[in-house]
Amino acid sequence: MSFQILLNVFLAYIWMFLKNDYSSSTFFIGYLLGLLIMLAYRHFFKERFYLSRVWAVIKLILLFLKELVLSNISVLKLVLSPKLNIRPGIFALETELTKDWEITILANLITLTPGTLVVDVSLDSKTLYIHAVDIPEKHEAIDSIKNTFEKAIMEVSR
Amino acid sequence: MEEIYKIVAALFIIIGTFLSLVSTFGLIRLPDVYTRNHAASKSATLGIMSILLGTFLYFHYVHGHFDTRVLLGIFFIFLTSPVAGHLISRSAYHSGVKMWEKSVEDDLHNAKEKVFIKK
User: Fold this and answer.
1) Which 3-state string (H, E, C) describes chain A?
2) Shortest CB distance from B93 goes to which of A69, A80, A120?
3) A122: buried, middle or exposed (CB in 10 Å: 19+, 13-18, 0-12)?
């Protein structure tokens, strides 16, 4: 990925030299043109094209924001409801992610999900211990973590 | 046009204060450290973020002053607040703070016992 970005910057500089104009707008145009050229020749790279990874990162950030808003609505409902009708508890969740930074991002995402909060990570970093406000709803939480978050993070790291 | 921006900024700030208020209520109402942490780590994050966003919009559109430091503030709160929530509940658990008596499940306790037996 870093090689591709470097190549793209190199192409942008070549465009600047061709145009004999060294302003930032020319650099930007050169960068976009270089991107197009690299898009055309993307099968010659050993790794996948880096823009798809950038796109995955953007999707992950949007997912973060969406979950933040949703979890706020659920906390709002919980706090402002007249009766506290909750059964909290800590449940364990096996994760497929292996790298440390992936698990960090997953833990952050889980903390921002409605009704869940990471309490601890096991020493072999395979199991996350998650505190949930409502244990009967834990299957939904596990479902969304497994299907949405882990997939979105894998998109980035793959 | 300026009035619209003023109203939008004011809306963001009002939503932010309301969320902060709700998280304060949550701190008072909820029963134990862990459930309180839910209120503190979620509502406070979005509350502060939307107050900062409202401030940013106001100064950008009404005073024409583009303040990147406010955006950086939003970014770092977004980054650090879940970590803070996690650390508070983790240290609470390991220093032996009891969960609420109506809590139904504690897998971490079971896991800890297993590790203890293995040693």
Assistant:
1) CHHHHHHHHHHHHHHHHHHCCCCHHHHHHHHHHHHHHHHHCHHHCCCCCHHHHHHHHHHHHHHHHHHHHHHHHHHHHHHHCCCCCCCCEEEEEECCCCCHHHHHHHHHHHHHCCCEEEEEECCCCCEEEEEECCHHHHHHHHHHHHHHHHHHHHHHHC
2) A120
3) middle
- What's the first-to-final CA gap in chain B, in angstroms? 69
pTM exceeding the 0.95 threshold for the entire prediction: no
Q: What is the ipTM of this complex?
A: 0.71
B41-93 tens-digit pLDDT: 888 888 898 999 999 999 888 888 888 888 899 889 888 888 888 888 888 88
Name the residue of chain B whose CA is nearest to A61's CA: B78
A95 to chain B: which residues are within 8 Å by CB? none
A vs B: CB pairs below 8 A = 115
Task: Please judge whether A79 and B105 are an interchain contact, meaning their C-beta atoms are less than 8 angstroms apart.
Answer: no
List the domain boundaries for chain A: 2-44, 50-157
Q: Which residues contact B45 (CB under 8 A, 6 or more apart)?
A: A68, A112, B77, B78, B81, B82
Q: Where are the domains of chain B?
A: 2-118
**Of B26, B82, B100, which has the smallest distance from its Cβ to A88's Cβ?**
B100
Reading across the β-sheet that carries A89-94, which strands appear in turn? A116-121, A127-132, A89-94, B105-106
| B86 touches A at CB < 8 Å | yes
Tokens of A104: 């960090």
Contacts B12 to A, Cβ<8 Å: none
